[in-house]
């Protein structure tokens, strides 16, 4: 049984995005990171390439966040979740943009899974960390990404989700509005001086922790590093204030 998120150590809060093309490369990376990180994230690239069997194999080594960001009509999302929940990942997610009925359908599926002994928690994606104010304006959303993220977080909480995916810039206001127990999982983490790439709303590991992130997602700064284990250790050290 993993500890309650409020009691996690900095290392347990580190989630590494395994955005790699094959199971072979992903398992090799998992071996290099063994014991150094709290969770591994399987996203679209790896899941499309390797499917459910790979998730099962990975989960035998470390807890998995299945980051598929489901977004469809309520029935489709509920039925897809019922299939994916057979893998019993530690975390799974849907898009808050799917709206209240879709979120409620997702919650229903996860509640049934947990009632049957499953451990999965459901997160809702608020505003992708790759979007800035200008990109949101192009999508027809006037205003600040943080206000939209907070609105989606409140919707997700009302529907019964366990937390949200947001940028660390919004973690503090979401914690204040939704409470400590409502998780904030934050991608868009970049150690100082590291390229932001396609991320727009970024924060350093130390700042993100201070802002109230429950879990920090880091991908390329670790997986593309010459020494991924050392890069992960550097991030943990920064979170620990060493
Ligand atoms: O808003 C979001 C939601 C998910 N992600 C995912 O997190 C990782 C970030 O990888 P980096 O290499 O550290 O940029 C990636 O798998 C995304 O799909 C996100 O970035 N933002």
Automatic annotation (TrEMBL):
Q: Which UniProt keywords apply?
A: Decarboxylase, Lyase, Pyrimidine biosynthesis
In this chain, substrate is annotated as bound at: 19, 41, 67-76, 129, 190, 199, 219-220
Task: Show where the Orotidine 5'-phosphate decarboxylase domain sits.
Answer: 13-235
Which of the seven top EC classes does this enzyme belong to? lyase
Locate the active site.
69
Which PROSITE patterns does the record match to this protein?
OMPDECASE
Catalysed reaction, written as an equation: orotidine 5'-phosphate + H(+) = UMP + CO2
Q: Reply yes or no: does the keyword Ubl conjugation apply.
A: no
Q: Which SUPFAM superfamilies match?
A: Ribulose-phoshate binding barrel (SSF51366)
User: Which pathway, metabolic or otherwise, does it act in?
Assistant: Pyrimidine metabolism; UMP biosynthesis via de novo pathway; UMP from orotate: step 2/2
InterPro entries from the xrefs?
Aldolase_TIM, OMPdecase, OMPdecase_AS, OMPdecase_bac, OMPdeCOase_dom, RibuloseP-bd_barrel
**NCBIfam families according to UniProt:** PRK00230.1, pyrF
Which family does this protein fall into?
Belongs to the OMP decarboxylase family. Type 1 subfamily.
Assembly with partners or alone: Homodimer.
Mind telling me what this protein is named? Answer: Orotidine 5'-phosphate decarboxylase
């Amino acid at each position: 049984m993993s500890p309650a998120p409020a009691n996690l150590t900095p290392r347990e809060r580190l989630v590494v995005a395994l955005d790699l093309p094959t199971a072979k490369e992903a398992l090799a990376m998992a071996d290099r990171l063994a014991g150094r990180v709290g969770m591994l994230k399987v996203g679209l690239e790896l899941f499309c390439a390797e499917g459910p069997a790979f998730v099962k194999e990975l989960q035998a080594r470390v807890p998995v966040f299945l980051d598929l960001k489901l977004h469809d009509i309520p029935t489709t999302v509920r039925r897809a979740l019922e299939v994916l929940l057979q893998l019993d990942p530690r975390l799974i997610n849907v898009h808050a943009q799917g709206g209240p009925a879709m979120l409620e359908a997702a919650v229903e599926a996860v509640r049934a899974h947990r009632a049957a002994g499953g451990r999965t928690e459901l997160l809702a994606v608020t505003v992708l960390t790759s979007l800035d104010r200008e990109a949101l304006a192009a999508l027809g959303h006037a205003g600040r990404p943080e206000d939209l993220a907070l609105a989606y977080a409140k919707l997700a909480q009302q529907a019964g989700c366990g937390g949200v995916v947001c940028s660390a810039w919004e973690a503090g206001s979401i914690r204040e509005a939704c409470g400590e127990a409502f998780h904030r999982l934050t991608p868009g983490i970049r150690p100082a001086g590291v390229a932001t790439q396609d991320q727009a709303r970024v924060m350093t590991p130390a700042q993100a922790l201070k802002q109230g992130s429950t879990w920090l997602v880091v991908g390329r700064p670790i997986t593309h590093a010459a020494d991924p284990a050392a890069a992960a250790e550097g991030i943990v050290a920064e979170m620990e204030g060493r």
